[in-house]
Every structure is written in C-alpha cells, then in structure tokens.
Write a structure and sequence with these properties.
It is a single chain. About 65% of the residues lie in helices and about 5% in strands. Strands 1-2 form a two-stranded antiparallel ribbon. A hairpin with a 2-residue loop joins strand 1 and strand 2. About 40% of the residues are buried.
Length: about 160
Amino acid sequence: MDDRRIRILVASGILAAVIFVLTAFLRIPIPAGYIHLGDTGVFFAAMLLPPGVAAVCAGLGSALADLIGFPAYVPVTFAVKGLTALVFALLWRRKNRLRYLAFLAVLVIPVGYFLFELILYRNFAWVDLPLNLLQSVVGAGLAFALDRAGKDRFRL
C-alpha cells in the first residue's frame, strides 16, 4: 500500500469518527429528529477525499450516529449522506467556476429526508424540511470556511 492510500484510509477513518461525534453529541432536537453539525464533516470529507471514499465515510459516520435513538433512519441516512458527499465531491473536483455547482448538493439532504418522512409521517414531513435545508447549508458553509482556512494543510 502506498503512502497516499494510507493517508486516505487514515483520514477517512478520522473524518467518519468526527462526523459521528458532530452528529451524535452536538445536536438540537426537532419534531422528527434533530439538527446537528455533522453535515460540516460530510461536506469537508467530500472536499478532501476521493468521491467514493467520501460517500462511504459520510454515510457511515452519519448512520452510526442514528443508531443512538433513531435506528429507523440508519439506512436512509447512509444513503442520503453518502449521496450528498458523492455529488459534492464529483462537482467540487472541477477546476473552473462550475465547481461551485457542488453547493447544489446541499439540496440532497433535505429532499432525501423529506421523501423518507413523507412515507413515514405523511403531511408532517413538511415540518422538518426548512430545518434540514438550514442544517445542510450551514454545514456546507462551515466546510467551505474550513477548507479556505486550511488551504494546503488539509491536502492528502
């Protein structure tokens, strides 16, 4: 295994753990779950790691947090956060202005959870939509700030 693969493996483990902690322990309850800073880790992992690795890292760290209190959400969380990281990572790697289209990935989280909660809660699903959007936008913004502040220190 070469040096770069080892760095990616270690970084993905650390980031999955950070996502878990930011999601599981720094949260504010809302009607159908909670809001948290874990999405900052999801977007930051997508900026740092290869797309497939970022998707697994984000999905795993987030889904593990849902095992504490919200086990019904584990599969959907794995899918939604993984897809968010994958979409963001693929677009973020562009070297031109189109890379900022990556921020459209913030819509994957509220739309994904809304569709799941529509099945689960019916009309009640609308309640969490704006809060999930806010959480996603704040997470992406904080990840962008971390990336800018770290410049080349965070490169693998």
